[in-house]
Design goal:
12 helices; 386 residues; alpha/beta; eight-stranded mixed sheet; globular
Length: 386
């Protein structure tokens, strides 16, 4: 009656977070360099985009993922003033001092304004651009808009990196892909799993359509309209456990939004920043607790069954009842039998709290995040002797 744990799976869970997704790029680069095989990769929002590139990459997954992020960086618009401008007279030093006093940096402020005003030509663009006047029937009726930024350019960009034939049952992806979204009409979670269905670009646009940043919903299937899964959970571990409930797991969670800070917020921008981080931070503690509780219950049932088999004479127990109990136990194993063997968090650090850090697509910002993700992951793997 004892359950067969089988081979333990390695699971990588990627949070959403806009440009902070470059941190996950560095994380995966370190995994690839270490030779650790990822069996399941899951994500939502930009985490779902990263996961899809990794699972369905046309070339080496880590190389394709890095090229994707560097492409985004190269297509960002740099608003930094010329370094030759005189300090103290509208130049960089003058503005840097001003923004430092306000609790933000010039670099972060300008990266936010760049994304907000111009978007990114290969990822998302604002609807107010003049070229939309001929194609957008609501262009001159903004009071009827339900979104501000069109993120359909992302579809063409992803075509460069993803082989969608891999992202379907029997498609031989680099890892099983699980991405999440939420149904706009019912508020129910949507889980898209490459083992059970064809993952298309519509699913990727749906998982990344965050409405509070002005992105649209996407009709992923007939009559099903999806928004960004981070509205429900920015860390889709529970969805992985539900989708793959039989094999035990080692889980790595990439945290773009730290749960723990070392000091209280000092001003209102930092208050909003901390509130945002809490909203998007990992909340899988309950799922882990339930998984471990179910594991203990299953072990307890196994022990009781063995006691009955070893100590009760066959004639004193109804064999049909014993068989029914065995089938019930097996059903629970099939639905909830996976045990979380290990869980490790790879967390981005925040040396400077800034509310719009997830809009920094500048080359410097993206490259720094990739380096940080790679360094943090190497530290984690070294600690685990992997």
């Amino acid at each position: 009656m004892a359950r067969d744990h089988g081979e333990t799976e390695n699971v990588l869970v990627l949070q959403g977070g806009g440009s902070l997704g470059a941190f996950s790029c560095g994380v995966f680069k370190a995994f690839a360099e270490s030779g650790i095989k990822i069996d399941i990769i899951a994500g939502t929002s930009i985490g779902g985009i990263n996961a899809a590139i990794i699972a369905g990459s046309k070339d080496r997954a880590e190389a394709d993922l890095e090229r994707f992020w560097l492409d985004l960086a190269e297509n960002s618009i740099d608003l930094t003033p010329p370094a030759a401008m005189p300090a103290g007279n509208g130049g960089p030093d003058y503005y840097s001092n001003y923004y430092q006093q306000a609790g933000i940096t010039l670099k972060h402020a300008l990266s936010f304004y760049s994304s907000a005003i111009y978007g990114n030509n290969i990822m998302f663009v604002p609807r107010w651009r003049p070229d939309y006047a001929a194609t957008d029937p609501q262009y001159f009726r903004p009071q009827q808009w339900t979104y501000v930024y069109d993120h359909s350019p992302l579809a063409a960009t992803l075509e460069k990196y993803i082989d969608y034939d891999k992202l379907k049952p029997g498609g031989s992806p680099n890892a099983r892909l699980i991405i999440t979204a939420v149904d706009v009409m019912t508020a129910q979670p949507l889980t898209f799993d490459s083992v059970k269905q064809q993952i298309t670009v519509k699913h990727l646009l749906g998982t990344s359509g965050y409405p509070l940043y002005g992105f649209p919903w996407v009709e992923v299937e007939k009559g099903v309209y999806a928004w960004d899964g981070s509205l429900l959970s920015n860390t889709p571990l529970r969805e992985v456990i539900d989708a793959a409930p039989t094999k035990d797991k080692n889980v790595f969670i990439v945290e773009n939004y730290p749960k723990v800070i070392d000091r209280l917020p000092q001003n209102l921008p930092e208050v909003y920043h901390r509130a945002r981080d809490i909203m998007f931070s990992d909340k899988t503690a309950h799922s882990l607790k339930m998984s471990r509780t179910i594991t203990r219950y299953l072990q307890f049932i196994e022990e009781l069954y063995e006691i009955i088999q070893d100590n009760v004479e066959p004639g004193k127990i109804d064999p049909q009842k014993l068989d029914k109990m065995k089938r019930k136990h097996q059903k629970i194993i099939n639905e909830h039998g996976a045990e979380i063997k290990k869980i490790e968090y790879i967390t981005r650090e925040e040396s400077f709290p800034y509310l719009y850090e997830n809009t920094d697509f500048t080359p410097e910002g993206i490259k720094n995040l990739i380096k940080e993700g790679e360094a943090k992951t190497k530290q984690t793997l070294k600690k685990m002797n992997l």
